[in-house]
Design a protein that fits this description.
alpha/beta, 26 helices, globular, binds iron/sulfur cluster
Length: about 725
């Protein structure tokens, strides 16, 4: 591919390398979308160490989404019932600055909020932190990573002393036993799964254990599928620990020298008799014993998890209970082993490093830690005490603040909360009350744009330069290789411009993304996520680099690919911490009125709320419409057949969906994909049903489970079409 550029796929946290080249003008090489527009050619970057040339359908078709349904100009309106009018950047920014100043003066800085995204590049995250937490003095910056992996952050921090996934993708090639819990890796992180499957297929002694109430594509190739009842993960993990201890498969020397808290944990797991655990989880005792045996007999055990563990009212407890298994068996700090969280978004990891959640600061620092605040203040040249000691509002707290009037200004960027937030009707009602909402995004229309007073057009991946870190701590340079459409600008430039107009001109002198990154990496100096050895120049010359990567000593790949190889953790005494948790179960368990547990999830082709993938014909054909999976036994009880429509009701709202009757879902559980917002189908927003009960530590809502009832509709589906601004979408409508 001549004139090609190397970059990173901007979808999921696997972070596959892509090689892109301009559209051929004519001839055989020309590649066009379904409308005949020539599009950039994309293929996997064989030299990228994370993905070795592999891509899934999303990465392969990314170029087709770049020019469709774009927001081209700043737009404004005085109230939500007025149409938008096009304005200049100057007018929009002056209005935003005036509003921030008014709210700061009348309500205080804590009435100002920003809600960002794992789609941000590290530069966007970093400049937003400097603006909000540093200059304005409020920690009210949260990101959609709160809904995705904040339980993993809390779990790592509490068990190991700081955040940071200890493993790398090479561990997929080296492990003897992959323990996948709460992750449909084959569909949601397909390239990681492919990499493990090569090892699994080649070596018959390598085991795959999958824990999931659904028999997903991941579970279908498992050596052992444990279809546990939703909310019984801690029972299962404690049950496995009970067996490992009973049979003497524990590493006492490692625990004595490198951990703390085992005695309390041993007390807890003594209560998890296998008979009781199997019954609680809805699995056989022999399967439970087999899982413990696979773990015990493997030299190297790698556990992988994502939303099924994180999106829970006991998410941190689940993460820590899983880590406990690694600690009691010394399955950490060596090739092929360790607890490995998979991130949903392309740069959720970079966000964590840059302090992109309301309780953290750049460089894996905590808002609550006075030393950390002082370090950041010094680096930002701020007076002592400028950074608030109070953790900021999480995104759900922002919704509550809109309800009470405590929040007077909301800036949403690169995310679509009007589809992805829990308890969606309540979320929408709160946003309708917002005195002033800025929405900055690459795409228009989106569901969230309907709730904005100001729209700002964002340049996206390919139209701006920035860095992103993938799940294995590997930082990739994503260069600009196209011009942004219309007047779109990079997010970080917009935040910096607002900072300058607010009177902080000296702090936002950046002229390019390399300068922003260089300033950010100083915050990682001597921190566990040290990136001082990573520069724009090195990334462009050497390709992706993994942290820790200090400028003081050049690490060999062996030293950076895994954390804790010296068995020294980031706690004050260097020991990892056991956690002793009993299972609390679901926040909203089923009952006679709402007898089913709804679980939500993703499909192979679609990405989140379809702002990109909904506009790609190939992916639309793959997943044309929403549905609900129901077990045949439940379908019979309710009185529905395959393909018939069913009303799904929770205490908060209802949907209407065609039923897919399948044994792939456990009895008592139903599944709805979360990709469909109001723009793409009627009555199909999964999060209308979900609730906002959250983990007390990570504040991550339990999006994965709520109680529902099913009511058959017994009417036929009709097809109709609806038109958005730039293309015709086939929308599956329910009968009125
Ligand atoms: Fe992109 Fe994730 Fe697919 Fe890789 S696995 S190509 S990062 S969506």
């Amino acid at each position: 591919m001549g004139d090609s550029f190397k970059t990173l796929c901007p979808y999921c946290g696997v972070g596959c390398g892509l090689e892109v080249s301009p559209p051929a003008e004519s001839g055989k090489g020309v590649s066009r979308d379904e409308e005949g527009t020539p599009v950039w050619r994309v293929r996997g970057d064989r030299a990228h160490p994370s993905s070795e040339g592999m891509v899934c359908v999303k990465g392969a078709t990314i170029a087709e989404s770049l020019h469709k349904s774009r927001l081209l100009h700043p737009m404004m309106r005085d109230s939500l019932d007025e149409p938008f009018r096009q304005v200049s950047w100057d007018e929009a920014l002056n209005c935003i600055v005036a509003r921030i100043q008014t709210v700061r003066f009348t309500q205080g800085a804590d009435a100002i909020c920003m809600y960002g995204s794992g789609q941000f590049q590290t530069q966007d995250y970093y400049v937003a932190q400097k603006l909000l937490k540093g200059c304005l003095g409020t920690n009210n910056f949260d990101a959609n990573s709160r809904l995705c992996m904040s339980s993993a952050v809390a779990g790592y921090t509490q068990s190991f002393g700081t955040d940071g996934p200890p493993c790398c993708y090479e561990d997929l090639d080296l492990t003897d036993c992959a323990f996948l819990i709460g992750t449909n890796t084959a569909e949601c992180h397909p390239i990681i799964f492919n990499r493990f499957r090569k090892n699994h297929k080649k070596n018959h002694n390598v085991k795959l254990i999958v824990v999931d109430p659904r028999c997903t594509e991941t579970a279908q190739v498992a050596d052992l599928h444990l279809a546990i009842k939703p909310g019984t993960d801690i029972d299962l993990l404690n049950g496995i620990a009970h067996i490992l201890m009973r049979d003497g498969h524990i590493e006492t020397l490692f625990m004595d020298e490198c951990t703390q808290g085992f005695n309390d944990y041993a007390q807890v797991i003594s209560h998890y008799d296998p008979e009781i655990v199997a019954q609680t989880c809805g699995i056989s005792v022999s399967d439970l014993e087999k899982a413990a045996q696979y773990w015990a007999k493997s030299q190297r055990v790698l556990s992988l998890w994502s939303m099924g563990i994180n999106q829970s009212s006991e998410g941190t407890a689940k993460v820590r209970t899983l880590i406990n298994l690694h600690l009691m068996t010394a399955q950490i700090g060596k090739p092929g082993a360790g607890p490995f969280s998979l991130t949903g978004q392309p740069n959720a990891m970079g966000g964590r490093e840059a302090g992109g959640l309301s309780h953290i600061l750049p460089g894996y620092r905590l808002v609550k830690n006075p030393v950390h605040r002082a370090e950041v203040e010094e680096l930002w040249g701020l007076p002592p005490g400028r950074i608030s000691a109070k953790p900021g509002l999480t995104v759900w707290d922002m919704i509550l603040g809109l309800e009470t009037g405590d929040v007077g200004f909301v800036w949403i960027s690169a995310t679509n909360p009007v589809v992805s937030m829990p308890d969606l009707e309540r979320t929408k009602a709160a946003l309708l009350r917002s005195p002033f909402t800025v929405y900055q995004d690459a795409y228009y229309p989106t569901e969230t744009a309907e709730f904005a007073h100001v729209l700002l057009p964002a340049a996206q991946w390919s139209e701006k330069t920035g860095m992103m870190t993938n799940s294995e701590r590997r930082v990739t340079l994503c260069p600009q290789f196209r011009q942004p459409p219309g007047e779109a600008r990079p997010d970080w430039e917009v935040f910096a411009e607002v900072g300058r107009r607010l009177g902080f001109a000296d702090r936002f002198k950046f002229t390019d993304a390399a300068q922003v990154f260089a300033e950010f990496t100083e915050f990682t100096r001597d921190r566990p996520c040290d990136q001082t050895g990573i520069t724009y120049e090195r990334l462009s010359q050497e390709g992706p680099l993994q942290w820790p990567c200090s400028d003081k000593n050049i690490h060999s790949p062996d030293e950076t690919s895994r954390l804790y190889t010296d068995l020294h953790f980031n706690t004050p005494d260097g020991r990892a911490r056991f956690a002793a948790y009993h299972s609390r179960g679901l926040a909203e368990p089923p009952d006679p009125n709402y007898p089913f547990v709804l679980t939500v999830g993703r499909l192979y082709g679609h990405w989140h709320t379809q702002t990109r993938t909904g506009r790609i014909a190939k992916i639309q054909k793959m997943h044309p419409a929403p549905f609900i999976e129901v077990h045949p036994r439940d379908a019979k009880t309710v009185g529905i057949a395959d393909g018939e429509w069913v009303e799904v009701r929770s205490r908060r709202g209802k949907l209407r969906l065609p039923a897919v009757v399948t044994k792939n879902i456990a009895p008592g559980t139903v599944f709805v994909p979360m990709h469909w917002g109001a723009l793409w189908a009627d009555d199909a927003e999964a999060n209308v049903l979900t609730h906002a009960e959250a983990c007390p530590d990570s504040k991550q809502p339990e999006l994965k489970a709520c109680a529902v009832q099913l009511v058959p509709l017994k009417t036929a589906a009709v097809q109709s079409t609806s038109t958005d601004s730039q293309m015709e979408l086939t929308v599956l409508k329910t009968p009125s």
